[in-house]
Design brief:
This protein is of the alpha+beta class and 96 residues long. The chain has one domain: Nuclear Transport Factor 2, Chain: A (Roll), CATH 3.10.450.50. Helices cover 16% and strands 49% of the residues.
Length: 96
Amino acid sequence: MRSRYTAFMLGDTSYLHRTWHPTTRPRRLELDPAQEWLGLRILGAQRGSLLDSTGTVEFVAEYRYRGRRDALHERSRFTREKGQWLYVDGVFPDEA
């Protein structure tokens, strides 16, 4: 999760593409350079240890977009394939 957050911060779409599960990965990923990532807080994780093949991470990522501060609160699902963790999808707990 932290490495993907860093990739968003740096605009590294290649890394994001490589760490996104092929069944849910978008064809193209365009990041808006006006979005400035300010910080990441991990709220919790389930599974995802060395012996697991799936896991979830709940986080809040704060950002500024065109002068306005906001935050993304997501519960992300990951799966491990061939030793690499891949992002599958996420839900937004604040919208539930």
